[in-house]
Amino acid sequence: MTVLGDAALLAVGIAALWFGARWLVDGASRLATSVGISPLVVGLTVVAFGTSAPEVTVSVTAALEGQGDVSVANVVGSNVFNLGVILGIVAVIAPFRVTSALLRRDALAMIGTTVIGAVILSNRHASRLEGAVLLALLCCYLGAIGLAIRRADSDDTAADSTAVALTGGTDGETVSLGREGVRLLAGLGLVVAGGRVLVDAATGIALSLGISAWLVGATVVAAGTSLPELVTSVVAARRGDMGIAAGNVVGSNVFNLLGVLGVAAVVRPMTVDPAVGRSLAWLLVVTAIGTALLATGRRVSRREGVALIAIGLGYWLASALGFG
Q1: Does residue 18 sit within a domain?
Q2: The pTM is what?
Q3: DSSP 8-state secondary structure symbol assigned to residue 169
Q4: Which residues, in sequence order, are CB contacts of 67 under 8 Å at separation 6+?
Q5: For residue 197, is it within any domain?
Q6: pLDDT, tens digit, for every residue of 158-181?
């Protein structure tokens, strides 16, 4: 396909991502309200895993085709982009306070999985056994979230029951859940399809310029597959759904390292470019800084958001110059 054709597909992918993200956030937010689940939990699970679908598609496809560099670089680059650029933009749009659940459980899970991922990739190889360990850890993380939901405050449950009674019982709620469920799934479908189209187009343009597979994966592909997270978090932040916005970023990073990298390694063991060492160092630094900012007063300010964006963009520049 010509560069002009790829450029047209880029526009189509961006449009699909934008509209899909709006539906995804609307559906997820209203479902959370209807069934009494916190927006943070929805952001950490349904929205985060849904917007990570492009990473799964790209990394697994690359692994199957023997492109380990693209597969791993996509995961590492996406996580730097998520925590640097996306979380930074969310903070610039609307500075937010971090809930105790996000601080204690999910931020710690994010930095823990980053360290585990770095240890596994330190020898530039990811085996099937290591991939299986990562997937097992993902199941443990999901189990922890499930236990947190079950231990939800009984007062919240009582309040939800009262709200259902005041709105006319469960019939009205069932209709609402069905409608919002369709909206969420339609939005998720558009996000996945848009992300895939955009990545294919961007990769075609980049490779036509003779850029290395690792650099393409760490920058163009990583940013492309992270666009669903970017658009979804920005839309959520502008609407005041900060639990979904922040939870989407943190949950996506955990899922990328445990789920995406785990599945890709199980599908086909991978050996990657020596540049993985420098990229992992960037990821560890941005994750440590991001976690520290989340813990500082349990609030991320606009100034801290700008600092995160600078770090994320710095990774891009360093990668382009051969230092990342």
Answers
A1: no
A2: 0.77
A3: S
A4: 213, 217
A5: no
A6: 444 444 443 444 444 454 677 878
